[in-house]
Amino acid sequence: PQARHVPVADHAQVKAAALAWIERLKQNKENMAVFYFCGHGMTWNSNTTMLLRDFGRDTNNLIAEAIAVDQMVETMKNCPAIYQAFFIDCCRTRQDDLLEGQAVIGTPAFFLTPRARQHAEVRRQAVYYATSDDRPAAGGKNRASLFTEALMEGLSLVAAENETGSWVVRTGRLVDAMTRLVALKPKSAGGTIQIPAPKWMHSFDFNSTKMPPEVRTYVTAKDPSKWGELHLRCVRPSDDAELVNEPTDAEKDPFVQWELPLAQDLIIEAKLAGGATVTHKLSTGHPVRWVELGV
Prior knowledge:
The strands form 5 sheets. The protein has a 4-stranded mixed beta sheet with strand order 1-5-6-9, covered by helices on one side. By secondary structure, the chain is an alpha+beta fold. The relative contact order is 0.11. It has helices at 11-25, 69-75, 146-158, 171-183, and strands at residues 32-38, 40-44, 47-51, 66-68, 83-89, 124-129, 160-161, 168-170, 197-199, 205-208, 214-221, 231-236, 241-247, 256-261, 265-271, 277-283, 288-293. The N and C termini lie far apart (46 Å). It has 4 helices and 17 strands.
């Protein structure tokens, strides 16, 4: 595919992009506003702040090239777009001591006054932070961050529901999906459990998707410390077919992801190094299945 130039994310470039984005959103109230940030961040006075490329260059105001999330979300309530989603993928560790005496943090990329509203309908905002207040967010070498990996899996499959007859992802359900997906990867998170944190959560249809022919299944253990001792099998009792036969790896995150046949009654076996075997019955169905083995 053809390469696409991406501007450097300094304050001037982000401001220019944000203003162009706002102008597009003003054209129709049914436009959906989607804001995604992935980079460094911090929290000051309970306000999470996105740190841009030129953060710290102004020696008289080290936090000038930063954008406060709360201010941005609040001013977006004056944007005509009814549906708005914000994905903030950064650390939220507190820096109150470093910024003591600072009255205002950062420089807003834009302001919208009430005159810009155009209509009186409630703005439905969904704000997702990659991690909880005063906690770091894990990245990864040569891979997406944990939050972004979970976001993409959630939007494409894991958070989908079909209560209306078609598969859609709603913003409320996406929170649960991302939380479960990130929790699968404590090693990638540096030995801790990273917990995505929602804020200003209105639930609305975000996107539609299609189901694959197979069923994604996530298999974990009740005691993650025993994960590397297990040997896993998945069999179909109706014809004794063995669908999976593999050892676990203690050096990786304590879960496996399988793609299993749809609408099947299966048995998962986990054999411990000492010889004991634990079994789990599974009926497969979309969108995904979660299995916690009792070991």
